[in-house]
């Protein structure tokens, strides 16, 4: 059975099973001019425009083929619209605090790190709102990353005991490669309404290593790291494929720099950390937009 969403006062409501959704229609909550959407529709449409939906008969509505809708600017785009919008993230301070403390304390025991990481990632992804992608979730499992984590841990121990300095560089490169693999794995396991989005990160390992080396070098300039971070984020977004929209980072290096300085100062006071983290996350999300792909 299809699941339905409807727009009310600028907010997305749902999903509702078809039977429950028809009850909302019968109660007058969903009216003919209400914007609705279900999987397989090309975009948000008025309920009255969908054959069989408002008739009250037993026949199921006819759903046109196409991708999910896009919502932008607090509104809803109609069928075939190329509108996009910014991401957003929201979470409670208490929820963030206890989960973060659990992650930090549990990580002291080393072994639980993969499971804690997946648990925390599932929570933070569910807090993100993406235009046209309701109920975002993360479907990855800890057992995928356990071999990577244990392998790196053993290598780090060997390098530490060997005392050979050149091996530290090898360990650094291996760490970057593992982060690259982690990004590919995380992107591939993003889902909406429990269904994988089919996304993939196609940035090359050499490109990723290059950006990280450039970032390390930029730290010498004291402030240059912020502009490198912004450029690297744009590069990463350009290399996410599987979406009909282009993911664009609009933030500037200056925006990252001054927020980073303020965050560092406030975080030194310990107590403001949850509010600072949410503030930073909200800004990065608001600077991440979905836009129509440019024609080649």
Largest sheet: 4 strands, antiparallel
Number of strands: 14
Secondary structure category: alpha+beta
Globally, the shape reads: elongated
Q: Give the neighbour order of strands across the main sheet.
A: 2-1-3-4
Percentage of residues in helical conformation: 40-55%
Mean pLDDT: 85
Order of helices and strands: EEHEEEEHHEEHHEEEHHEEHHE
In DSSP terms, counting alpha (H) and pi (I) runs of 4 or more, how many helices?
A: 9
The amount of beta strand, in percent, is 15-25%
In angstroms, what separates the terminal alpha carbons? 39 Å
Unreliable runs, pLDDT <50, ≥5 residues? Answer: 57-83
Round the Cα radius of gyration to an integer and report it. Answer: 23 Å
Written description of the protein model:
This protein has a four-stranded antiparallel β-sheet. It has a three-stranded antiparallel β-sheet with strand order 5-14-13. Helices cover 47% and strands 16% of the residues. The longest helix is centred in the middle third of the chain and has 23 residues, at 166-188. With 296 residues, it is of the alpha+beta class. The model is unreliable at 57-83 (pLDDT under 50).
């Amino acid at each position: 059975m299809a699941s339905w969403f409807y727009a009310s006062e600028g907010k997305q409501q749902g999903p509702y099973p078809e039977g429950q959704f028809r009850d909302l229609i019968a109660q007058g909550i969903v009216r003919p001019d209400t914007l609705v959407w279900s999987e397989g529709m090309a975009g948000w449409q008025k309920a009255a425009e969908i054959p069989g939906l408002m008739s009250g008969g037993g026949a199921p509505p006819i759903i046109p083929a196409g991708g999910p809708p896009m919502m932008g600017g607090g509104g809803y785009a109609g069928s075939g619209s190329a509108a996009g919008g910014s991401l957003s993230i929201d979470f409670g301070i208490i929820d963030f605090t206890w989960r973060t403390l659990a992650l930090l304390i549990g990580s002291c025991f080393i072994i639980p790190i993969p499971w804690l990481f997946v648990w925390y990632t599932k929570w933070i992804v569910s807090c993100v709102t993406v235009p046209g992608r309701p109920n975002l979730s993360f479907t990855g499992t800890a057992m995928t990353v356990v071999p990577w984590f244990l392998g790196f841990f053993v290598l780090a121990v060997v390098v530490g005991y060997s005392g050979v300095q050149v091996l530290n560089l090898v360990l650094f490169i291996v760490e970057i490669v593992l982060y690259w693999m982690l990004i590919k794995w995380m992107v591939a396991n993003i889902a909406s309404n429990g269904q994988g989005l089919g996304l993939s990160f196609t940035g090359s390992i050499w490109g990723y290593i290059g950006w990280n080396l450039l970032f390390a070098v930029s730290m010498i300039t004291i402030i240059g790291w912020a502009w490198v971070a912004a450029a690297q984020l744009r590069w990463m977004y350009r290399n996410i494929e599987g979406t009909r929209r282009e993911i664009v980072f609009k933030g500037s290096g200056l925006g990252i720099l001054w927020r980073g300085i303020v965050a560092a100062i406030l975080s030194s006071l310990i107590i403001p950390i949850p509010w600072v983290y949410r503030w930073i996350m909200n800004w990065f999300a608001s600077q991440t937009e979905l836009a129509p792909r440019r024609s080649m």
